[in-house]
Amino acid sequence: MQRHPAAYPRNTKRFAAHSLDKADPAELKAKASSLGLGFDAMNSNTFQDQDGQPLSYKFGSLSHTDAGTRRQAVEHNLECIEIGKAIGSRALTIWIGDGSNFPGQANFTRQFERYLDAAKAIYAELPDDWRLFTEHKMYEPAFYSTVVQDWGTNYMIAQELGEKAYCLVDLGHHAPNANIEMIVARLIQFGKLGGFHFNDSKYGDDDLDTGSIDPYRLFLVFNELVDAETRKASGFDPAHMLDQSHNVTDPIESLMVSAMEVQRAYAQALLVDRSALDGFQDTNDALMATTTLKTAFRTDVEPILAMARLENGGAVDPVAAYRSAGYRQKVAEIRPEVSGAGGGIV
Ligand SMILES: [Mn+2]
User: Fold this and answer.
1) Residue 66 lies inside a defined structural domain of this protein
2) Is 345 a domain residue?
3) Residue 239 belongs to a domain
4) Domain annotation covers residue 296
5) How far apart are the first and last CA of the chain?
6) For 312-331, what is each residue's pLDDT tens digit?
7) How confident is the model at residue 10, as a pLDDT?
8) Which of 74, 104, 121, 122 has the fewest CB atoms in 10 Å of its CB?
9) Range of the domain at 318
10) Could you tell me the distance, in angstroms and rounded to a whole number, from the CA of residue 313 to the centre of ligand 1?
């Protein structure tokens, strides 16, 4: 499935744009504006070969051993920036599938040096008011080693590139049981948290719907975000996006439910009694500290969320409203059928 990371709307409705769409940017921007929509981060794609592409990314893109292939990948990212400028985007997200599948296949150091050189060439062309997000991922499609495999390497990249470079955290791109909320805290502490690709996972990078497996982990991530927001952590301005694979559901319905799960986690995190938590932490009362978090997590905030939707002109029950509107059936009649094949890995 080709996945299109979609922005989680905060105050304005913004969506991540996938660069493969070569629709006329001006037309796209005008249509989106007429609907009150905007575009968030551009996502480059050098992890799949495109039709008519001269050089293959089979053995890498930005870190490829061949300078011409690296240049092609850099040019693609620069084109994403140009399209992004035309549609009002102000961020570029780079995720590469580069790595190796056998011990000895690649020299770790030289491969990362090539990546950094290519990333610097992209960064040099980044407009002043843009941000560059790099996304780490533990494995897949490179199953032995991945160039940007974890938040440590991601942080090194952001440090090497400069102040407009930030780390993107995709919840699915970690080892099972990794303490993602702590990674989030670290990146906030050092001013390098760029934002999120929200999703959930049972085994690996499953890209299941946000909050569908472990809503408590999502809450714990938001607990760190609210903590940073509350103490006005410097440079804290994360982008919120959903990056999921919808295989058995209507993607629009899944995105609605996932957006609500993100809002639920945020609302619950806002309910944490932070001064009480601080006190329990300072006095090493582990039981009461964790109970303070659980108390907020167990609070049913659904009535608050439903009222917030209503007051914002939305539906109390978005999925029910969407289904009764018959939108899916209507557009299915006028839009051409497209193949679901493609095997996108993000
Ligand atoms: Mn992602």
Assistant:
1) yes
2) no
3) yes
4) yes
5) 10
6) 999 999 999 999 999 999 98
7) 33
8) 104
9) 5-334
10) 30
Low-confidence ranges of the chain (pLDDT < 50): 1-13, 19
CA of 335 to the centre of ligand 1 (A): 27
Mean pLDDT taken over the chain: 92
**What's the 78 CA to ligand 1 centre distance in angstroms?**
20
Q: What's the 338 CA to ligand 1 centre distance in angstroms?
A: 23
pTM for the full predicted model? 0.91
- Antiparallel, parallel or unpaired: β 165-170 and 193-198: parallel
Could you give the number of structural domains in the chain? Answer: 1
How many contiguous H segments (helices) and E segments (strands) does the chain have?
12, 10
Helix, strand, coil % in the chain, rounded to nearest 5 = 45, 15, 45
Q: What DSSP string runs through 262-274?
A: HHHHHHHHHTS-H
- What the block records as the tokens of 18 is 């996938």
Q: Is residue 318 reached through a cis peptide bond, with omega within 30 degrees of 0 on the bond before it? A: no
Q: What is the CATH number of the domain that holds 46?
A: 3.20.20.150
198 touches 266 (CB < 8 A): no
Ligand 1 center from residue 344 Cα (angstroms):
11
